[in-house]
Specification:
alpha/beta, 3-stranded mixed β-sheet, 36% helix, Transcription Regulator spoIIAA, globular, 5-stranded mixed β-sheet, 26% strand, 4 helices, single chain, 113 residues
Amino acid sequence: MVFTGLNVRTLGEFVIIEPGAAIRLCEDELMPLVTGYVDRGYRKFVFNLRDVHYMDSASLGGIVQSFGIVTRRGGRFVLCSCVPRLIDLLETTKLHRVFEIFDAEDEAIRSFR
């Protein structure tokens, strides 16, 4: 994936990933990032999509694969702050049944407790 303005930060035991306005196909960028944090012991991931207005299907697949990496290692990977267009995409692809989706980052973080 090519992230326009990717921001990754840790907040205690959480990894907060904030991609920029658009996510476009570019193999092997998100999964190694997530794997690196998982390998360092992080198990709580919040993917904050508040600024994302475009996502292609391959990028959505990368997010699904990252979800798998985290959950297979006993963690949780949740989404938050999705714009309506992304909610429509998640519903169309039925991924809203796979991902936990929260309205805001603080709500997503509280869900881990």
